[in-house]
Amino acid sequence: MAAQIDPNAGPVLELGGGTGALTREILATGLPRDRLEVVEINQQLARELHAGFHGVRIIQHPAESICEQAAGGEGAYQAVISGLPMLAFTPVQQEAILSEAFRLLAPGGAFIQFTYSPRSPFRRPVIQNLDLRIERIGTILRNVPPATVFGVRRAADTD
Ligand SMILES: C[S@@+](CC[C@H](N)C(=O)[O-])C[C@H]1O[C@@H](n2cnc3c(N)ncnc32)[C@H](O)[C@@H]1O
């Protein structure tokens, strides 16, 4: 996580906060709490995140339409970190989530996806439609099963 987040740069948006495992890792980079926003659709989990992470803004809302809810505004975020179950989503959902995320990301900003699949969870047409590029960033072996981390960037930022 430390390689993906600069604690002195712009805000970070986490999608699918769940029980807060990734939230803890993001804060461990030294990112100030008021520069992290966490999106969680489930009301109970959102409440628990709110209680457990004082100073972090928790947004109970679907990631598919998050732009209007994100306080940082368009083009401001240094990174979007996703623990969403992307493999379970339809192409339409995936495209909506990535479109919203890239509206919020600053130029050069990356969408970082954690997944239990060793393969990219994104559908190829979605990536092509949005003119994005995917790279495998690493594997976390201490997870059971191991988690793979993918970075998604605008093609224009990688060429
Ligand atoms: C695999 S879990 C989260 C893993 C997380 N890193 C953790 O430590 O628990 C995925 C989370 O995404 C949330 N979620 C699923 N679909 C969502 C959506 N469309 N928008 C926002 N959150 C969603 C689920 O409620 C769940 O808490």
In CATH, the homologous superfamily goes by the name Vaccinia Virus protein VP39
End-to-end separation in angstroms reads: 24 Å
Report the CATH architecture.
3-Layer(aba) Sandwich
Helicity level? 25-40%
**Alpha carbon gyration radius:** 14 Å
Descriptive notes:
With 159 residues, this protein is α/β, with parallel strands linked by helices. It has one domain (12-158): 3-Layer(aba) Sandwich (Rossmann fold). 26% of the residues lie in helices and 28% in strands. The chain has five helices and seven strands. It has a seven-stranded mixed β-sheet with strand order 3-2-1-4-5-7-6. Helix 3 (91-104) links the parallel strand 4 (77-82) and strand 5. The longest helix has 14 residues, at 91-104. It is globular, with a radius of gyration of 14 Å. The model has no long low-confidence stretch (mean pLDDT 95). Bound molecules: S-adenosylmethionine.
Concise account of the structure shown:
This protein is α/β, with parallel strands linked by helices. It has 5 helices and 7 strands, in the order βαβαββαβαββα.
Annotate the secondary structure layout.
Elements: E1 12-15, H1 21-28, E2 36-39, H2 43-52, E3 57-59, E4 77-82, H3 91-104, E5 105-115, H4 124-129, E6 132-140, E7 147-154, H5 155-158
Bound molecules: S-adenosylmethionine.
Residues 15-16, 18-22, 39-42, 45, 62-64, 83-85 line the site of S-adenosylmethionine.
